[in-house]
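Quick one before lunch.
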Amino acid sequence: MHDESSNKSGQSGQSVEPGNPARRNFMKTSALASLAGAAGLALAGCGRKGDQVGTAGPAKAAAAAGELSDHVPPGQLDEYYGFWSGGQSGEVRIVGVPSMRELMRIPVFNPDFTIGWGVTNESKRVLGPNFPPGGDCHHPHMSQTDGHYDGRYIFINDKAHTRVARIRCDVMRTDRITDVPNVQAIHGLRVQRAPRTGYVFANGEFLIPAPNDGRDLDDPKKYQTMFSALDGDTMEVAWQVLVDGNLDNTEADYAGKYAISTCYNSEGGMDLPSTMQAERDWVVVFDIARIEAAVKKGDFKTIGSSKVPVLDGRHGSSFTLYIPIPKNPHGINASPDGKYVVANGKLSPTVTVMEWSRIDDWFAGKLKDPRDTVVAEPELGLGPLHTAYDGRGNGYTTLFIDSQIAKWNIEDAIAAHGGKKVNYLRQKIDVAYQPGHCHSSMGETRDADGKWLVSLNKFSKDRFLPTGPLHPDNDQLIDISGETMKLVADGPVYAEPHDVILLHRRLLIDKVKKSWERDDPFFAETVAMAKRHDINVLADSKVIREGRKVFVYMTSAAPIFGLGSFKVKKGDEVTVVVTNIDAVEDVSHGFCITNYGINMEISPGATASATFTADKAGVFWYYCTFFCHAMHMEMSGRMLVEA
Ligand code: CUK
Ligand code: CUA
Ligand code: CA
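Model of the dinuclear copper ion complex:
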């Protein structure tokens, strides 16, 4: 799919195709059929890069003056925190940028035996008692205040189980998970940027019958979905808006007035061909103040046992605006100057640039045609999915089918749309391969600093040592600080990050705690339970029996648990509560009971607990799982389960 020149110049970036952005014309429906097949999508654009294999290329070459390097010498810290969605692993990963070193994992929707996520009572309070086996997270976004990251929370969707989670950034732990009612598959997720988050916006992607009671498979007229707003402080669903079509990705403005979502299935199709019928689908804009006013007025219904106000935002509603755009659009990204929002055309080689002030005008009745909010529709290449920004007026759009990123200038695209003869395209760079999201450092905030871009490529193909039929993704680091993009490093990752945020360490480095506060709400219920048993968890190691319920309290201080042994009876419900009284940074203990499926992490200052039924008689050793001391191996004890 590439020009010859692009293959030669390869990774280091290629020149613009001057004056010929229209090289690939608007895709006809006939061409779409072949693209729709996975093979078609995968192969296009991959084919000719074999000659690059084995060349170190510019990736590890010493950075020339003025170029950025991914090398972070031993003992030095990365400049940026990256928060990577873990996709269908259900977790979030903290990655240092530019080194691309994985620093930590945060279990969210997934069980994780390392820290006992899904094992401990504290995590089960977050996950729910009968939590599903995992999640599918795509979109991590940090809370903001006035368009700046504020370091409070990261929110993330679970498409697999229609949920939204919140991670506390002070301890990097998930503290709330909310089921979203009345919809199926939360995909797009964003936060309100101003005055603060505020709302967390969540798209229900799939159309489902209403009511979804097992009667309708084939009556598309009964199918619907909704846009949801959660309160980021309480994690309750604040309201929902019924829409026409489906909802893919979502975005918010910088003034706190609007949310906006892409729809690829305006057709209401139930299979692939029917979702590609229309030349244009749309984005739908939600006027938050008008929605809040309607909720206040009682202009809503509720559905079933859910108390969430549901408003009708289908065509004709006063608080939604449907803007037709081509074709099966996917990502939607607001520019950091607060002026524009860009929808990415996917099956159209274009992106659509809309101006927020014109959206103001439309809601004020000053514009007749929703398309009057569109100020540019530049053609960039095949399969535009997501756009990132450098804060210098340029957009960086991933081209899935072309396996490229197109750098383009927003104001030039607007001028070209107005009829001026200007070339808005600045550069295209090959990526390996098939990029989904790309994300720039600080690029979704007013502080976009135009230093780094990460391209999250779905296919890595020949870029790494073979790992079996399942290949890692390839997240490539690109220097965007200069006039031309430069590929700096490949980063293999486990499936399947969709999105990432990159924030400067100054925003977080002093907010992250190195030990737990004793009054932390994460384990407050456990400490309160101890108090009811007249236990001071910092000092007492003791067994309390209440009928068939046994509570085993113990301290942990390297290299010894407060109890060397304890006794329970077969059939007892046992709750073990361990408190780490080592107030020493980085001295975490673990508590594992062999052959009992119990392991939990207890970091400095923390209390953790797990409840299980003692259903096997015998002696079972418990031991510390975090190497905490020279005598770590000896940090153990015995549980006797009496027959
Ligand atoms: S994403 Cu969720 S299908 Cu492009 Cu934001 Cu990957
Ligand atoms: Cu405590 Cu190892
Ligand atoms: Ca469509």
